[in-house]
Every structure is written in structure tokens, then in C-alpha cells.
Amino acid sequence: MSERYGGQGRRYGGRPDHRGRAQQGRRNDRGPRPEIRGRRDDARLSAELRDMSGASYGRYKSLQGDWDFGDFTLTIDKVQSDPFAPPSRLSVLIPADVAELPETAWHSPVRRRATADFLARRAFRTLKGSRLRIDVGGQEVIDRASVQIEEGDLRLRLGIEMPGHGRRIDGRTAEHELCERLPDLVDALCWPELDTRAAVAFADTVEDTAALRDQLSALGLVAFVADGSVLPRRSGVSDLPMDGEGKAVPFTAPDSLRVTVDLPHRGEVEGMGVPEGITLIVGGGFHGKSTLLHALERGVYDHVPGDGRELVATRPDAVKIRAEEGRRVERTDVGSFVRNLPTGADTGDFSTDNASGSTSQAANISEALEAGSTTLLVDEDTTATNLMIRDARMQKLVHGDREPLTPFVDLVRPLHRDHGVSTVLVMGGSGDYFDVADTVIMLDGYRPYDVTERARRLAAERVDADFTLPAHRVVDPRSVNATARGRARLKRRDMDVLTFGENDIDVRSLAQLVDPGQIIGVGLAMRLLAEGGLLDAGRTLAEALDALDERLATGGVTALGRGYLGDYALPRRFEIAATLNRLRSLRITRLERPTEHD
Where in this protein does the record put region Disordered (predicted)? Predict the structure, then answer.
């Protein structure tokens, strides 16, 4: 038995707890507590679980509520109805004087998020082999409900599959999990028990990336990739960095695009700055074009140390755009892209239950702009070709009055010139965008080269079309209903589908949803928009998203939860809007055309 449980360790040696009384041992061999009739403490929980062995599974429900463990409080929020139901939900509150997290670990929102993420990963490792589960992320550091730091107090949200033999309670195993493994977890998360140097380095890394992202706008950049970054991933199904000596080519900026940034902890860092405007990423197949764009997509998030993309930062409002044949579109203004449809439909107020590749891509761009994006990320491989380009020979064959589409190549320059929206495009099969590009980066063997001047010598003069910002839409909150048969219904299927009320929403095309918890977070945000009054009073969708951002800035990710006991993580407003736009019950009550000053 560890020394710390014998009354001589750091935490169980009689130091007063947060209620001012001496801590006693939590197990029988740590010294008895005074018997108080009706008291719900760890000793009573242990006894009740042993007594339940062999009883009907439903008896577990009697455990719901608070249990005092002396130095922390366990709350059993919800007990599963049978062994095959979703796991039971627990929360644990560790007071600040027990957790002993220094204020430097949580004094700012960035460090608080980073330290909470570090603790979640520590908890995940500690619980290996346990029935207790904690939601923990992949390579991105995202604010999630599973670990929250509140003025130094540490709150955990856990799941557990309550043990049973068939439909009979396995009380001994339950006692081990809740009265042995859980206290061990609490112990492992207190600051003196951590590798504090690693914890501080983790938060420093995240703080550097956040500071880098904050500098992009002032530097006139949409993204930055530090020298030495490792962009390739281990495989198509793994987001871990490519391993093995010599396999991954470290990123090195071309001299003409080299930028130096000053970061709080690393100091001066050099790398490639991707400037505002229209940037093309070109090169042969398998030379790293899409790998670079994928890193920029994920650059809206911070990454864990060792990921290889810790110092890849992209403007936080960057949105990946693609074609999405078959999606529903509800009263979206695609008039800048589509006109003179044979059906006579008003493309300034366009709806369809089965969009084509081109109309879906046009809608995705318009909806991203409506939500506030100023940076679009586009990969030729996932676009509708007829919306991207139309070469001279095709224009001669199909005259303008018979072609309803205005290709993106004619719109991308006025989009930036008139509205300040930058675009980064991966192009491998067409040189038409040389005519409009401000910067051309060629990837050759995963090494970037600035070939802008060479591309300009190949460019032709062209006449751009006009781009009018899409109309803002007002959503009917009654069409955003999270209930089915009178009960809230919110769940996900892998990373593919969000079930929201009676609707299954296909989210596979939303490349910047990177964490399963974010999908639930999106559903909770949609519920808050509708039920929290944020879509009321005639607010446009953009105004409602602004109000949501304000609420989250004040209340954090847990402002989304409101009674939801499962795992969830913070999504961006752009993925919230994109998912809402794919809700088949969505109804738009009116459109508001932008003014000159919008």
C-alpha cells in the first residue's frame, strides 16, 4: 500500500480540508470516521455498494446525489437503467486548496483551457483499465466539459459503466471503481503529484500558438507555418505526426515569404507567412499540396506539444469550402454565383432539397460569409469544377446567356478587393487562377517555393465579375427543435451524423469539426440558439451567432450544457452555422440585404 494512505502522506496526514476539519482516511485501514446517521460519505458508499451485490440492477439508482469523500465531492448525476444503456454520469469537485493548482496555471482563458486539457490527458492515462471514462481530445486542444477549472477548483465529468453480472449488481467491482480508483484519480490530478514542468510546458506551447494567431491580422497574414513544422500525418486514419527517421520532411519557408514573429515563451520564431489576398498552392501529385492545406484547416485550433503543427496558425474565422451534392439549402443568397436558371428560380433567395455540386458549393461560400468568415480554404479535389473555372473554348461553345454559373475564378479577386475576404486554393489541374493570384506557392517534395513571378509571366489579362455579399437570413426558432416525441434527443453517430430532435444531420463534409465532442457541442449550441431566445426578436443568423459568442465568452463551454450530462466540446460559430444550415427542418422567415457599410 502506498505510504500516502497510511496517514503519513502528503494529503492524508491530518491537514485541514476545505471545511476546516482534519482529513481522515477514505479506506477502512486509514482510520475510522465518526459514525453520523444518514451521512452520505465514502464509507457509507463503500458499505452500500457491498450490500448491493447480487441485487437487481435498478437498485443502483438509489446512489444518485452527492457523496462526501472528505477532500472532494462525488456527485452521481445519472445512473443507467440497465447494463446495456449509455454509461452512468458522475461529476467530481476538487476544491482549490486540495487541487493546489497555482494561479499561473489558470489565470487566463488560454492557460485555463491548456491546463484543463493537460489534466484530462493525465486522467485518461490514470484510468487505463478502469470502467471510469473521461472525454479527452486528439491532437487539438479544445475547451471541453470533461475538465473545467473554476477559480482554482477542479471539476471533472466522468462516465462509468456500472458493473453487473447480467442484470444483477456487481457491488465489489463498483466499490473498487468508485471508492478506490476514483480517489486515486483525484490524487493523480493534484498539482504536487503532476509532472509540473510538463504541465507548464504544455500551457506555454498553447499560449504561444494563441499569441501567434492573434498577431496574424496585424502582420497582414491569413496563416503562418513555422520552420521545422511536421505537417504529414502518420496515415489516412491517424492524426498523429508521421514517425520514423527521415520520413517526414520538416517545413522550411521560402526566403521571399519568410516572416519572424515574437512569441511569449519561444521568443523569435521564423516561418512562412501566407499573406492576405489570393494564394495558390500548386505542385505535382503527392508533393504535399493538400497536406499543407489540411494543416491550415486545423490551424484554427491549438495543438499538443509534439504534434508537429504547434506553430501552424490560421485566422480563427477560416472556413474550408467544398462541394456537397445532395445537401438541402434553405433560402440562401447565391445570386453572385448563379443566375438565369432555366427554371426561373430566384437565386437571391434559393432553396432546394437536393443541391447540385455547384449550387451546394455556392451555398457553402455564401453561408460562410454570412457567419463572418474572412478567409476561405479551397481544395480543387473537393470542388465542383464547373463553379471553379470555365476555359475560353467552353465559353465560346456555351455562350454567357446560356450559362447560369459565374465561375469562382471571376469572383475571387473582387471578393478580396471589395470585401476583404482572402482565399487559399490548392490547384493541381488548372492554370486559370494564375491570372488572379497574388501569391503562388509550389510544393515540390514537401518543400515550398515561391513561384509567384513565374506564374505572373504565364497569366493573362481578365475581366472580373462583381461580387455582392449575400443577404442575411432570419431563422424561425420553432424550426430548430431538439425534441422528439416530447423529449430532448441529441446524439451523434461517429463523426458523420448529428441526431437533433427528429432530424439526422449529415456533418461529414464539415472538415473543421475535428473532435466527436464538438458534434454534440454543435447540437447543444443549436438548442441554445432556439430555446435560449438568441434567434428571437428578429435577429439575423449572424446577430444570433454574435449573441452566442458573447454568452460563451462569459460562461465558457459549460454554458452550452444546461442539464446535458454527456461529453461535449466547444465548436466554432462557423460549424454551428454550417450544421444549422443542413438541418432539414430549418425555415427562414425573411432575408435582409446588406447595406454599403456591411
Answer: 1-45, 338-358
Which string of DSSP letters, residue by residue, matches 534-560?
Answer: TT-TT-BHHHHHHHHHHHHHHH-GGGG
Query: How far is Cα 106 from Cα 115, in angstroms, rounded to an integer?
Result: 7
The string of DSSP codes covering 414-482 is HHHHHH--EEEEE-SS--GGGGT-SEEEEEETTEEEE-HHHHHHH-----PPP-PPPPEEEE-GGG---
Query: Cell numbers 503562418 label which residue?
Result: 224
Q: Which of 567, 547, 497, 490 is nearest to 524 (CA)?
A: 490
CA distance 69 to 494: 36
Residue 399 pLDDT grade (very low, low, confident, very high; cuts 50, 70, 90): low
Q: How far apart are CA 471 and CA 332, in angstroms?
A: 8
The C-alpha atoms of residue 525 and residue 91 are separated, in whole angstroms, by 22
* Nearest residue to 127 via CA among 159, 168, 152: 159
Strand partners, 442: 282, 449
Location of C-alpha cell 438565369: 340
The answer to whether residues 369 and 470 touch, using CB atoms and an 8 Å cutoff, is yes
Residues in the chain: 598
129-166 pLDDT, tens digit each: 999 999 999 999 999 999 999 999 999 999 999 999 99
CA distance 310 to 206: 8
Cβ atoms < 10 Å from Cβ of 100: 18
Radius of gyration, alpha carbons of the chain: 27
Is the entire prediction scored with pTM above 0.70? Answer: yes
Q: Report the C-alpha gap between 564 and 567 in whole angstroms.
A: 8
Range from 1-15, 23-37, 180-194, 393-407 carrying the lowest mean pLDDT: 1-15
